[in-house]
Amino acid sequence: MALHIAVEDPAQPEIIELLRDGEEHSAELYPAESNHHLPLDALRSTNVRFFVARNGSGRAVATGALVLHGPWAELKRMWVVPDARGQGVSKAILAVLEARARSEHVAVLRLETGVESHAALGLYKHAGFRQRGPFGDYREDPLSVFMEKELSEHPG
């Protein structure tokens, strides 16, 4: 699938719909207290780099955000529309997020995902993320998996 991945404003109707779809999917798997979505206004903060992947016809098919916290950053709002899954979209947007993190001098990428999010867990493990304990404002949650990846100056 031909993709164009770039920083975009999340406050576009098409993107808001994608974000809602991701929230609805999470709500089917986890109770509200185990869902940790950043709201739209937070996604527009100066320390957030919000990316959209668009297919060859310009349709938004995935989102992902990098939230900068000085020496570390958190991945948020990773979501691929169902009909674009299995085509390398999540791997592509993750690679762009990692590259941007490196360019922003981030040493460690962190994330929280759910125990039932098997595709996401597989993606992150394959990309070199390792499990760790809660970070930031997160608390221990049996439905959450916390992961991180140390970034080197030179990938690979």
From TrEMBL:
| Gene3D superfamilies named among the record's database cross-references | 3.40.630.30
Record bears the keyword Acyltransferase: yes
Instruction: Cite a single GO MF annotation.
Output: acyltransferase activity, transferring groups other than amino-acyl groups
Q: Which CDD domains match?
A: NAT_SF
InterPro entries cross-referenced by the UniProt entry = Acyl_CoA_acyltransferase, Bact_Acetyltransf, GNAT_dom
Q: Which residues form the N-acetyltransferase domain?
A: 6-152
Protein keywords:
Acyltransferase, Transferase
Q: What is this protein called?
A: GNAT family N-acetyltransferase
Q: Which organism is it from?
A: Bradyrhizobium sediminis
Q: What is the lineage of its organism?
A: Bacteria, Pseudomonadati, Pseudomonadota, Alphaproteobacteria, Hyphomicrobiales
